[in-house]
Amino acid sequence: MTRCSLYAVCAWAALVIAGCASTEESVGSGLWHYNAGLYPQAALRLIRSVPELERSSPADPRVLSGYLALGRMASADRAFEPASNYYKKAMQVARTHHSADTTLTRNALVETGLFFAGRDQFADAVPLLQEAVGISQRDTTVPRMLYAIDLDNLAMAQSGAKNFALASSNSNRSLQVLDGLSPTKEVQATRGVVLYNRAFALAEQGQVDAADSTYRESLALITANAEAWRRKVVVANYAKFLRTLGRESEAKAVEGAAQ
After folding, report:
1. pLDDT at position 259
2. Residue 180: is it exposed, middle or buried by C-beta count within 10 angstroms (0-12/13-18/19+)?
3. What is the pLDDT of residue 4?
4. Residue-wise pLDDT tens digits, 63-95
5. Residue 12 has what pLDDT?
6. Residue 211 lies inside a defined structural domain of this protein
7. Spatial separation of the C-alpha atoms in residues 104 and 14, rounded to whole Å
8. What total of structural domains would you count in the chain?
9. Which 3-state string (H, E, C) describes the chain?
């Protein structure tokens, strides 16, 4: 059986739920189901009730949470146009009603920016991630490691947009911020991610030797400090890079060492 889009099915079912529960109850239940990982049940409740809650109480934080949850679920279901609309609604709500809450606004900016970057819509992603950097740079209550991550996210999007000079500058800034922090495993893992993104950008520019050494440095940090899934990503892309250069034996060695 061909799997249908969750959003093609749930739009009708939400009408049924709306008739037997208040808007606030539906939103609360939808977010509970979302946090429990029960996405079909969450979508059934949130598709209709979040816009209704926005009309009656637009500053309610559950409106922002609901739109972000809908964006994530739509994206996971590969319903990218609805996802884009939900993320744009989330940003509108964040800017209009939560501008004083820098944490909420920054988080919405980062998530929305990364969604667009993941769709290769870098013209949409870069301004959002730039705005997030501005917040984390100004607001010293934002942990400095998050500031470094924001700079790296921006560099990644700028690299995708082929603005390699700006990307390199922000990657350097990210590493400089990390240099000022205690070298915990979390900080070192973050450094490994920054270097991985830099290696990817260097490879795209044809800077083979620099990309190779940066991939190796990234892999060492990720292997020693990060989760297994991150190591798998770095290994897979480093091996792919080596194979594009005809270095099959080295690619197999990298993969073998990661086992």
Report:
1. 72
2. exposed
3. 34
4. 999 999 999 999 999 999 999 999 999 999 999
5. 26
6. no
7. 27
8. 1
9. CCCCCHHHHHHHHHHHHHCCCCHHHHHHHHHHHHHCCCHHHHHHHHHHHHHHHHHHCCCCHHHHHHHHHHHHHHHHCCCHHHHHHHHHHHHHHHHHHCCCCHHHHHHHHHHHHHHHHHCCCHHHHHHHHHHHHHHHHHCCCCCHHHHHHHHHHHHHHHHHCCCHHHHHHHHHHHHHHHHCCCCCHHHHHHHHHHHHHHHHHHHHCCCHHHHHHHHHHHHHHHHHHCCHHHHHHHHHHHHHHHHHCCCHHHHHHHHHHCC
Name, in order, each residue with C-beta under 8 angstroms of 162's C-beta and a sequence gap of 6 or more.
none
Nearest residue to 211 via CA among 222, 225, 195, 224: 195
**What pLDDT does 256 receive?**
87
Report pLDDT for 7: 34
Indicate whether 4 belongs to any domain: yes
Task: Please tell me the distance from the alpha carbon of residue 28 to that of residue 46, in angstroms, as a whole number.
Answer: 9
Q: Tell me if 165 is assigned to some domain.
A: no
Whose CA is closest to 160, among 136, 183, 194, 126? 126
The string of pLDDT tens digits covering residues 203-225 is 999 999 999 999 999 999 999 99
Phi then psi for 162, rounded to 5 degrees? 70, 20
Q: Which structural domain range is residue 92 located in?
A: 1-99
Positions of the chain with pLDDT lower than 50, given as ranges: 1-20
Residue 203 lies in a domain: no
Q: How far apart are the first and last CA of the chain?
A: 36
- Tokens 């000022």 map to which residue? 180
**Global model pTM greater than 0.85:** yes
Tokens of 51: 């816009």
Residue 140: count of CB within 10 angstroms of its CB: 9
